[in-house]
TrEMBL record:
Pfam short name (any one): PI-PLC-X
Biological classification of the source: Eukaryota, Viridiplantae, Streptophyta, Embryophyta, Tracheophyta
GO MF annotation: an example: phosphoric diester hydrolase activity
Region annotated Disordered, chain positions: 1-37
Ranges for domain Phosphatidylinositol-specific phospholipase C X: 63-192
Protein name: Phosphatidylinositol-specific phospholipase C X domain-containing protein
SUPFAM superfamilies: PLC-like phosphodiesterases
GO biological process terms held by the UniProt record: lipid metabolic process
SMART domains per UniProt: PLCXc (SM00148)
Gene3D superfamilies noted in UniProt: Phosphatidylinositol (PI) phosphodiesterase
Domain of life: Eukaryota
Length: 318
């Protein structure tokens, strides 16, 4: 018992030390970067606002959400706090400015996070289609994967094609070098990541797992996550010399051996440092590698940081 108490005390000390390290770095690094003062007039249509004829897919800094369809996961006030990573519906996230969503499903097509369940993936698809029907030039990266420990939903690729067919941008490396205007009216890059079923092939309406990569760092220590994100990003090719999306997740994850197991207070340890990450990318020379930037509990400031950096790229300010 004494050893466990000592271990928990050490964990709290480590968290405190790492939070102070990030706060100190933020204070010394300032808050400005090219595009940092840009605010889209309409976040629902921010791609339209930046000009679809200028927005090349590979140059966009895509604001994304982690575990996107968890706003109603589990049982309220009982299991939900341990798995909820977003408080908004998929539709509201897209309206706020998110353009990459991360969906996990199980064999019956219900969305899940580990063992906890929520609504059918139909809810997600309907939200996506509602958003697309209300906009004209917004492109979405829709990542759907079979959750770890679960089987693939039967004939799920056919389901996705039937539901989104008119919007789907076919799998093709040339897409990365095209502008949004050149892709319209197609507006969804749907990455399907099954566990056992065949991967989508070149030319398919769906994209295979290798087109959206990341390095998941499972930690509740904010500076450790921040530094690990930077290290892995530094090892990627610049966006103009690769034919895949690379994602950085500005999140922290509760750990089983820590007394704080709810998502929000843990991920909040790093949540406010997205702009700092961009500033550090610039100072270290890695900003040309940053592409998909995801978060828990997405807010307007996170979206504005991504859109502002995108605006700086297309205006030649970087």
């Amino acid at each position: 018992m004494g050893a466990q108490v000592s271990k928990q005390a050490e964990r709290r000390k480590n968290v405190s030390t790492e939070m102070k390290a990030l706060a100190d770095l933020k204070q010394s690094s300032g808050s400005d970067f090219p595009g940092s003062d840009y605010r889209p007039a309409d976040r629902k249509n921010w791609m339209l606002g930046l000009d679809p004829g200028k927005l090349v897919i590979e140059k966009i800094v895509w604001p994304g959400t982690h575990d996107s369809a968890t706003n109603k996961i589990g049982i309220p006030c009982i299991t939900r706090p341990f798995a909820q990573c977003q408080s908004l519906s998929i539709y509201r996230q897209l309206v706020r400015g998110a353009r990459v969503v991360d969906i996990r499903v199980q064999e019956d097509r219900r969305v899940c996070h580990g063992i906890l369940l929520t609504y059918s993936v139909d809810v997600v698809i309907n939200d996506v289609k509602k958003f697309l029907s209300e906009t004209q030039s917004e492109v979405i990266v829709l990542e759907i994967r079979t959750e770890f420990g679960h089987d693939d939903p039967p004939e799920f690729d056919k389901y996705l094609e039937d539901q989104l067919g008119e919007y789907l941008i076919p799998q093709d490396d040339s897409v990365f070098g095209k502008t949004i205007a050149e892709l319209l009216p197609k507006r969804v890059i749907c990455v399907w990541k099954p566990r056992k079923s065949p991967q989508p092939q070149h030319g398919s309406p769906l994209w295979s797992a290798g087109y959206l990569k990341d390095n998941w760092i499972d930690t509740d220590l904010p500076s450790t996550k921040f530094d690990s994100n930077m290290k892995h990003l530094s090892q990627q090719p610049p966006v103009n010399s690769r034919k895949f999306f690379y994602r950085v997740e500005n999140t922290a994850t509760p750990q089983a051996d820590n007394p704080i197991l709810c998502v929000k207070p843990v991920t909040n340890r790093i949540h406010g440092y997205a702009r700092l990450f961009i500033i550090e990318c610039l100072s270290k020379g890695y900003v040309d590698r940053l592409q998909i930037f995801s978060t828990d509990f997405i807010d307007e400031d996170f979206v504005d940081a991504c859109v502002g950096l995108t605006q700086a790229r297309i205006e030649g300010k970087l």
